[in-house]
Amino acid sequence: MSVKKLKPITPGQRGRVVNGYDAITTDKPEKSLLIPKKRSGGRNNSGRMTARYIGGGHKKRYRIIDFKRNRFDAPAEVQTIEYDPNRSAFIALIKFADGEKRYIIAQAGLQVGQEVVSGEKVQPEIGNAMPLATIPLGTIISCIELHPGQGASIARSAGAFAQLMARDGKFATIKLPSGETRMILTTCIATIGAVSNSDHQLVVSGKAGRSRWLGRRPRTRPVVMNPVDHPMGGGEGRASGGHPRSRNGIPAKGYRTRNKNKASNKYIIERRKK
Q: Which of 76, 104, 192, 205 has CB 3.0 to 4.6 Å from 210, enough for a Cys bridge?
C-alpha cells in the first residue's frame, strides 16, 4: 500500500495526498450484496434536524458485510479486494465451494486466490476467524466480537488491530487499539491480522469540497456563536470562549463521562490513556 502526493497544478491539488489503492483489484462490486442506502441529512422521523453538519454527499450503496463469520470449517477463496465507501477499511469478496459469496473486512496482506476459513481447529493465518480460546497468545487480531454470536464490533477500521495478551478460565485479556486492556469471553470470535488500508491516516483531502462529497457540511466554531447558541459563545471582540465544553455544557478535554456503576466496568483491567 502507498500514498501519492499530487503536483500542485490547482489550489485543491496543492498539499493533497491520495491513497494509491495498490491493493484494490476491481472497481465493480458484487450486485447480489448491494442494498440501497437512504440518507437522513441529520433529520429524524418528524423531519427535524437532530444531528448538525450532515447532508449532501455522493450517493452510496451499502455493501452487506459478514461480521459474524459463522460458516464454520467451510473454506472460501478470496475473489477480489474492493473499496467500500461506507468504511475506511478495504473489503474482500470471498466465494465458498457451493457458490455462496460474502463480503468480509480485508486484513492487511490478504491476497486474491488465498483461502480463508473460520472455525475452532483452523490455522492462525491472516484472514482466518477463530474463537479467542484457540488463538495463540501474542497474536495480532482484529474484527473482535464483544459478545458471542454478536458479530465483530471492535478493531474494524483501517489499520486497527488488537493483541491477545493472556487467557484465564473463560476470559481472554485483550489490549485494544485505544490502549485499554479488557477481558472478553474466549468463545468470542476474532480474525487473525490487522485491518487493511493502514495508509488511510496519511490521506489529506486538499480542499473543503471533498468533505462535501463525503456528506459533511461546514461546521461552525462554538467561539463565534452567540451565548444563546453555545456556552462558549458571546463576548466582546474575539473572546477565548472560556472553558471548552459541549453545547450541553459537558466539559471537554479529559472529563470522564462513563458511568461509574456500569456493569462492564469489572471487565476493564486498565483504562485507555488520556
A: 205
